[in-house]
Each structure stands twice: as structure tokens, then as C-alpha cells.
Model the fold of this input.
Amino acid sequence: MQPYQPGDAATRPAVDVRRLWSGGLATALVAALVAVVGVVIARGILDIPVLAPEGSGTFGDATTGGLALAAAAAALVATALIHLLLLSTPRPFAFFDWIVGLVTVLAAAFPFSFDAELDAKVATAIINVLIGIAIGTLTSGAARRSLRRRG
Done:
């Protein structure tokens, strides 16, 4: 009898792909909405010129849509990442949490590399962090619910 190997395919739970990817699509929608809501609050309520010149209105300009699309795309990439990790690594959720956490820190730091008002940089960083938290928690939760016992 061979010892238990955490990476063995026979002992690894099966992934319900439909459940995982439907959760990933829902996460993409939530991430896009977090981006739009964040911009609306920053620009429309707090009057902080996030992602566009002040004259662009509450919803901003094409970059608001771009941020929403980027957030949705990031959620789908995160779903692909957790799917790959579930199939191949011994502690997929630990690796996923670290990767998403570090990418979120990078996304939060990114606005500070531009020449803009501090309040715009901070607001953009907060929006990016909220998007990262939504993607990380929702994708991880969908992945956990997609695991099934083999046999």
C-alpha cells in the first residue's frame, strides 16, 4: 500500500466545471459592477475626478467602461487560475489567495505611478482594492462549492 500523496489525482476532489465557471461569470458581473459603482460614488458623490477629466460627468468616459471590462476579465482570469490550481497543486486555495492578494496590492499601488491629484489616486486605489476583494472572495467561494468527492 502506497502512502497518501496530497497531489494524487485519485484522492483529489473532482471539479464541477459548470458550477465553477458559472460562479466565475457571476463574479465577472459583480467585479464590473464594483468598478462602475466605485466610479459613480467617487465622481458623482465625492466629486473626485477618477479615471477621467472632471467634465466627463458622473459615469466618466470610455475609461470607466474599460475599467469595468478589465475587472470582468480579471475575474475570468482568476477563475481560470483557480481551475488550473485545483487540478494541479497541493494547496490550491493558499496559492490562489497569495496570487490574488499580491495582484490586488499591485493594482492598489498602480494609480500612484501617475501624475494626478492625491484624492484621485486614493479613490482609484480603493476601487481597485474592492475589485480585488470581490474577485478573490467570490472566485474562491465558487471554487470551494464546485469541489465534489470522487466515486
Notes: The first strand starts at residue 14 and ends at 15.
